[in-house]
Design brief:
Layout lengths: L4 E7 L3 E7 L5 E8 L3 H4 L2 H13 L5 E8 L9 E4 L4 E4 L1 H8 L5 E5 H12 L8 E6 L3 E7 L2 E2 L37 H14 L14 H9 L3 H25 L3 E5 L7 H14 L8 E4 L6 H14 L1
Parallel strand pairs: 1-4, 4-7, 8-11, 11-12
Antiparallel strand pairs: 1-2, 2-3, 5-6, 8-9, 9-10
Length: 313
């Protein structure tokens, strides 16, 4: 087994990242290829299989493969619908295994794979119970309890973005609910809150001079003390702290790991999240640590490789 290779694959709508690991978890090589979503995504897995075979040279060297997919995935590897790739009623694990002449392949949701990567080699290293929150265009996540990734019956475990945190919201989320975390703590949620304040609050703000507002603009202004930006950030990240407290009452994790593009706000974001989390999580003085993700865009390949290793065992 020491000379065997494990592959971690992170399939995105634009690019597919690949990582080759040895049995000790050492990353041997990482690279990426364009994701060809033409013809209902039928070319994606053949391209992945070719890359794996080209790297391994010898089929016997491939121990197993893990794949992260941008959508709900059942524990069996079955995908009901994955709009970003054009897949539906499809089992990518089974299909890729066939292309690799029977090599074991295991699949999971991409956010879950990132959670697994951070748990294994990132911000959650050494912990047994973690919740990973990814704050980007939307809000996603992954949950690991007692060293096991939680899938749920329909592959929806970790859809943290659709916890309802704001009962005063009047505009529906993309899922149809009102007040989802996805509407507040995401990059677009932070921008939307700032734009609302700019319309309803006459307080002077540097944000009024920005033509196309981004979450980074809001955080940068907040760090400089801009009142509108500060209110927008504290409100949005306050809802993140509220969601973390809800999750603590259900899961009691050791660590919350915050990743995604919004997490680039760094300690400024963490300090607000911790403060709000502590104010809401009142059942115990022993609260989870709140840390930043460490693996960046590589979390998905690490997590997929870890899934491949664990599932094979």
């Amino acid at each position: 087994m020491n000379n065997k290779i494990f592959f971690g694959i992170d399939i995105g709508g634009t690019a597919t990242k690949l990582g080759a690991f040895n049995a000790d978890g050492l990353l041997l090589k990482k690279w990426e290829i364009p994701t060809d979503t033409a013809e209902s995504g039928t070319k994606i897995l053949p391209h992945v299989a070719k890359e794996i075979l080209d790297f391994a040279q010898d089929l016997a060297r491939i121990a197993s493969v893990g794949v992260g997919v941008p959508g709900p995935v059942l524990h069996s590897g079955y995908v009901k619908r994955c709009v970003n790739l054009g897949w539906g009623d499809f089992n990518p694990a089974r299909e890729l295994s066939a292309l690799l002449h029977g090599v074991p392949v295991f699949a999971g949701n991409d956010a879950n794979m990132a959670a697994m990567g951070e748990y294994w080699q990132g911000g959650g290293k050494g912990a047994h119970n973690i919740v990973f929150l990814t704050l980007g265009t939307g809000v996603g996540g992954g949950i690991i309890i007692n060293d096991r990734l939680i899938f749920g019956q329909a592959g929806l475990a970790g859809e943290i973005g659709h916890i309802v945190v704001n009962p005063e919201e009047t505009i529906p989320c993309n899922c149809g609910q009102l007040g989802c975390l996805d509407q507040t703590a995401s990059a677009r949620g932070i921008v939307r809150r700032a734009e609302l304040l700019l319309k309803t609050n006459p307080t002077p703000s540097i944000l009024r001079n920005v033509v196309t507002l981004t979450a980074r603009d809001v955080f940068d202004a907040a760090k400089d003390g801009d009142p509108i930006a500060c209110e927008a950030v504290r409100t949005c990240i306050g809802f993140l702290g509220k969601a973390m407290a809800m999750l603590t009452n259900i899961l009691d994790p050791e660590v919350f790991i915050i990743g995604g593009g919004v997490s680039k706000a760094g300690e400024y974001l963490l300090n607000i999240a911790r403060e709000k989390y502590i104010s809401y999580a009142v059942l115990s003085d022993q609260r989870a640590k709140v840390v930043l993700a460490e693996l960046g865009n590589d979390a998905g390949i690490y997590g997929a490789a870890k899934l491949a290793m664990d599932s094979l065992r």
